């Protein structure tokens, strides 16, 4: 008789102790995350922070510049052909408005101050009181006057013998003189000043930059329309660019010392809002590729500007076109100083790894000389922030500051060999700019967002043609 083996199984149910570390008496819910399509202030700030972290993780500056560029491509022929009325409308690509230098429109100073978040101060910073130049004035003045005599004689000859306009001839003479002046200064003072001996001098240097400014009427894309829904009318962003050439610039390995602290009351003062439509004041859109070009290639050892020079350009021609009074000339040249310094510094900042999403961690400083040989302007500019596109930070971020000294008249008349009422103040101010020693003992990390060592790359070579 077969034997049957009966198998029996037992089932056990095991329950975790409610008092275990994975459980609690009160329910704990995950953190609420605002949906992406729900455009609230928290959602917008979160999106910006996430994108800022993405940009920060990129190891090299050229890639950072590419990803933060506001340029938008035009719709292709196929996209336009196959678009149907029931599809989402094809919004016009973002327009990039060019900040001309000198300005292409009348009464530009308030607009230039707003789009660069710059406050202006008449008179140079007290910092220059500590720059000693008395021992060098006599020797430098001789070179200065000799070169000026040569250019003034050549200018008078060109005006008399050629068909060119006096404005063009004076502009060319100013360029030649500034170039000679910078090179003479390097030769004269480099033996006793190491930073000048190691400095890089560039002539006819291209300067290109782009940035985004908030506070304008939204008309470009859905994101900016959503910003208006959050902050009200006039909270949209507009992109700007700058494309000019400076006469001569000097670059060094270390940055200049800041004139004031970013926490100074001057940096926290309010700036009048002048957010009018750029088209209403005659600004032209620029469809060319956007670049950051501070006058040199990425990876150059001398990445910090010491002094840059400019001429008045065609400002006199524009004054005749506008039928403007003399006061407008003064404001026009201040606009030149603001735009030149701001564009030069933000392009340098982008080469150092900073951008509008990852703001600068220390102030950047620039010095600019603008002249037509007779009248001189001196600008000292301190860049405190790049974040111009976040309306929620507008009141807490410091302003950029531009100090200016001018117009300073160099002489009244020239008879071919002697200047009447020659003003030595111009000599002193030029020397204070040129002999302002960079801060070689700076303890701050100059490139905190770059994890990849900058290597020389001819990325923007076509900009130098």
UniProtKB/TrEMBL annotation:
Signal peptide: none annotated. GO terms for biological process: translation. Keywords: Mitochondrion, Ribonucleoprotein, Ribosomal protein. Pfam families: PDCD9 (PF07147). This is 28S ribosomal protein S30, mitochondrial. It is found in: Mitochondrion. GO terms for cellular component: mitochondrial large ribosomal subunit. GO terms for molecular function: structural constituent of ribosome. The keyword Ribonucleoprotein applies.
């Amino acid at each position: 008789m077969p034997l049957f083996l009966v198998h029996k199984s037992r089932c056990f149910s095991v329950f975790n102790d409610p008092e275990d570390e994975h459980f609690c008496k009160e329910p704990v819910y995950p953190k609420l995350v605002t949906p992406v399509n729900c455009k609230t202030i928290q959602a917008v700030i979160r999106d910006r922070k996430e994108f800022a972290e993405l940009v920060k993780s990129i190891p090299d500056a050229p890639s950072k510049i590419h990803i933060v560029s506001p340029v938008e491509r035009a719709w292709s022929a196929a996209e336009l052909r196959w678009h149907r009325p029931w599809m989402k409308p094809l919004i016009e690509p973002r327009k990039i408005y060019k900040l001309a230098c000198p300005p292409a429109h009348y009464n530009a100073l308030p607009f230039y101050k707003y789009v660069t978040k710059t406050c202006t101060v008449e008179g140079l910073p007290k910092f220059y009181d500590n720059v000693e130049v008395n021992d060098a004035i006599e020797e430098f003045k001789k070179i200065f006057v000799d070169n000026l005599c040569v250019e003034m004689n050549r200018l008078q000859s060109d005006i008399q013998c050629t068909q060119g306009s006096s404005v063009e001839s004076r502009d060319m003479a100013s360029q030649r003189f500034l170039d000679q002046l910078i090179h003479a200064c390097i030769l004269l003072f480099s033996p006793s000043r190491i930073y000048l001996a190691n400095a890089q001098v560039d002539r006819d240097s291209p300067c290109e930059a782009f940035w985004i400014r908030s506070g304008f009427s939204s008309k470009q894309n859905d994101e900016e329309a959503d910003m208006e829904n959050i902050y009200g009318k006039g909270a949209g962003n507009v992109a700007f660019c700058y494309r000019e050439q400076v006469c001569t610039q000097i670059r060094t390995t270390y940055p200049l010392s800041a004139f004031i602290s970013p926490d100074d009351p001057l940096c926290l003062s309010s700036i009048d809002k002048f957010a009018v439509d750029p088209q209403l004041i005659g600004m032209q859109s620029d469809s060319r590729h956007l670049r950051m070009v501070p006058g040199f290639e990425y990876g150059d050892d001398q990445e910090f500007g010491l002094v840059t020079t400019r001429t008045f350009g065609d400002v006199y021609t524009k004054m005749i076109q506008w039928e403007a009074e003399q006061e407008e000339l003064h404001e026009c040249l201040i606009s030149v100083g603001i735009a030149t310094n701001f564009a030069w510094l933000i392009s340098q900042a982008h080469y150092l790894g900073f951008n509008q999403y990852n703001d600068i961690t220390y102030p950047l400083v620039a010095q600019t000389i603008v002249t037509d040989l007779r009248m001189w302007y001196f600008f000292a500019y301190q860049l405190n922030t790049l974040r111009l596109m976040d309306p929620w930070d507008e009141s807490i971020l410091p302003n950029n500051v531009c100090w200016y000294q001018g117009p300073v008249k160099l002489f009244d008349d020239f008879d071919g060999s002697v200047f009447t009422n020659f003003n030595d103040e111009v000599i002193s101010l030029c020397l204070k700019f040129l002999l302002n020693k960079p801060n070689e003992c700076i303890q701050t990390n100059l490139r905190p967002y770059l994890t990849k060592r900058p290597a020389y790359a001819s990325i923007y070579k076509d900009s130098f043609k």
